[in-house]
Structure formats: C-alpha cells, structure tokens
Write a structure and sequence with these properties.
Layout lengths: L12 H11 L10 H8 L2 E5 L1 H4 L2 H4 L7 E6 L4 E5 L4 H16 L7 E5 L10 H14 L4 H7 L5 H11 L3 H10 L6 E7 L14 E8 L1 H6 L10 H7 L10 E8 L6 E10 L4 E7 L2
Parallel strand pairs: 1-3
Antiparallel strand pairs: 2-3, 2-4, 5-6, 5-9, 7-8, 8-9
Length: about 280
C-alpha cells in the first residue's frame, strides 16, 4: 500500500499583510489605522499602567526589561503600557497583531518588552512580529515604491515619516532596507559621560546598529565601527535644530582586511536621543 502524508498550506507573512490591509479597508488610506484592524480581527484593546496593574509574574520578562505590550489569546485582548508615545503605541499594537495572526505564534500569552520590540532583538518570534508590524505600518509595498522614487535624504525621511505617522528612526530604517540603491543607515548612541569632568567637551557618539540596502551589503559592508565626527555632533545637536537641519560631509571608510579606502557621502541628523547617518557612495 502506498502511503501519503497530508500537507498544509503555509501562508507567507506578506500574503497575510495584503489580506489584512485589503479586508480591513487600509489600502485606500494614507496611513494605517490599528483600530480598524482590531475591529476586523474582533480583538479588544486597552491601555493601563503596567508597573502597578500588571501581575508581578507577568512583569518579569525573560530579558529582564520592562513590558510594553501584551496579547492574551484567550481574552482576544491586546494591551499597551499607558506611558508609551502615540507612535510607539501604534507599533506595539501592530506587533501584537503579528503575534495573533502569524503561523506558529500560538502561545496563550505574549508579554513583550522594549528589547523584544526593538530592531536588534535576537528572539525569532519577536523579530517576525516586528517585521510584520513594519509591513503593516508602511502599508505593504506602497512605502517601498515611494522610497525608491525619492532622494535618499533626511528630507525624504521627514516627508515619509509624516505621511505614514511613523517615527524618524523606523522610517529611515525602512527607507534603506527597501531601497534598490546602495545606502546605509547608521544609528549612534551617546557614550556614558559619567566620568567626564570637562563639561564643555563635545560628547562622543558610538555606533548602536547599522541597517543597509541589499546592494550596499553586497558591494560594501554590513556593519561599521566608529564615532560621529565632533563637527557633526556640534552641528546637529544644537538647541532648536530639527531633523531637516542635517549636516552633510564626506567620510572615508577603510577596509581592515585590505586597507582600501572608500569615500561616502554622509548626512547626519538628530531626533533628540540618537544621532543618525544616511551613508551613500560618493559619485
């Protein structure tokens, strides 16, 4: 007797994104409305102060960070901490929707903290939910088409962030990751100044992480080490400066293996807590 094993259709995340956007009436919108997605999926939503109202056992995440959002399958409920900004709240809701609809995300309860909701998370289910949330936030392929038809610059980041009601960081990262042209986003964090007694010294900013377009990774590199040039720090962090007040310069990047020097155009900008750099090859 010949035996067969049943196979089941594995739905791709991008297909789920299209299905949700189409059937929840999001394709014709300028930006995503998470409430309409919740209503389509028949999910309830609430927001409260996690630190005081969430049970202690639920506040203890594996990474030890403070919880930011949760999903309870049994209750068909998504909740977010009431301290979140509007943009973080929207992304967190979309992240939990990802947990709800993605195959194999079948835990009874998800409690997601800042680490799990961050770009650099190493937890596979959290990364998948983050990617899904970003696809919803930027309306599937629509953002990619717009990003590739515009200049790679801070003005484009600001324009698209305003249009999609997303953060500058999320928009800049999406701009490079979905671009057909070679470009990289470098995100810098300020060094701890605890032991610096020179209050007039320009703070140092180290690389926090990098994101790059596929062709940039192939032609050049995926990661970079170094600091923001002091003149760029001084220019973009002045009081009253906005993302549009960027600092443009040329920088040389050396390959440690070959000592080859490559010149890039670097555009630095600031969002009050991180310094960013859009890196493109010098033409």
């Amino acid at each position: 007797m010949t035996s067969f094993r049943a196979g089941y259709l594995e739905i791709e995340p991008r297909e789920l994104v299209r299905y949700l956007l189409r059937n929840a009436g999001q394709f014709d919108r300028e930006y995503i409305n998470p409430q309409e997605l919740l209503e389509f999926l028949k999910l309830d939503y609430t927001s409260f102060h996690f630190a005081t109202e969430l049970p202690e056992e639920a506040r203890c995440t594996l990474a030890g960070a403070s919880p930011r959002a949760l999903l309870s399958f049994a209750d068909r409920l998504i909740a977010t901490d009431d301290s979140l900004s509007v943009k973080r709240e929207r992304f967190s809701v979309l992240h939990e929707i990802g947990h709800y609809v993605l195959p194999h995300h079948e835990h009874a309860l998800y409690v997601c903290d800042d680490i799990g909701l961050s770009f650099g998370t190493r937890l596979m289910l959290e990364k998948e939910a983050n990617d899904f949330a970003a696809d919803l936030l930027f309306l599937g392929d629509r953002f990619s088409a717009e990003a590739n038809s515009r200049q790679i610059s801070t003005s484009t980041v600001k324009e698209l962030a305003t249009r999609y009601q997303s953060s500058f960081e999320a928009t800049a990262r999406r701009l490079v990751e979905k671009n057909f042209r070679p470009c990289m986003l470098i995100v810098f964090k300020q060094k701890n100044r605890q032991h610096n007694i020179d209050v007039d010294a320009t703070p140092s900013w180290d690389v926090r992480y990098c994101a790059a377009s596929p062709i940039f990774k192939t032609r050049f590199f995926e990661k970079l080490r170094g600091e923001v040039p002091p003149e760029a720090v001084a220019a973009v962090t002045q009081s009253g400066k906005g993302i549009e007040d960027s600092y443009v310069c040329e920088i040389s990047v050396s390959d440690s293996a070959t000592d080859k020097q490559t010149i890039f155009q670097a555009e630095f900008f600031f969002n009050t807590y991180n310094i960013f750099c859009l890196l493109t090859p010098k033409t």
